[in-house]
Write a structure and sequence with these properties.
- There is one protein chain.
- It contains two helices and five strands.
- A hairpin with a 2-residue loop joins strand 2 and strand 3.
- The protein has a single domain, classed as Phosphorylase Kinase, domain 1, CATH 3.30.200.
- By secondary structure, the chain is of the alpha+beta class.
- Helices cover 28% and strands 35% of the residues.
Length: 81
């Protein structure tokens, strides 16, 4: 399966948590943060919001690698080691 297929499959499952701007998913490729806010936000602001909100639910993501993807549900940030 491609990364896009794996991501879309994971986003079809129930999220592990939800914060004000993101739904959080555990995927086979890492932790995925699906943005629930307007896609007009700058990518760097989305990243900073994900870092802050991740801490709120016990996820320390500052040292993780990150990738931005566009899914059928919106912008997704994937955090992985």
């Amino acid at each position: 399966m491609s990364t896009k297929e794996l991501l879309e499959d994971a986003l079809g499952q129930d999220p592990i948590s939800s914060t004000s701007c993101f739904e959080w998913y555990a995927t086979t490729i890492g932790i995925a943060a699906l943005c629930k806010t307007s896609e007009s936000l700058q990518i760097e602001k989305l990243y900073q919001a994900a870092i802050t909100e991740g801490l709120d639910i016990g996820l320390e993501l500052t040292k993780e690698e990150r990738e931005f993807h566009y899914s059928l549900k919106g912008i997704v940030i994937i955090f992985y080691s």
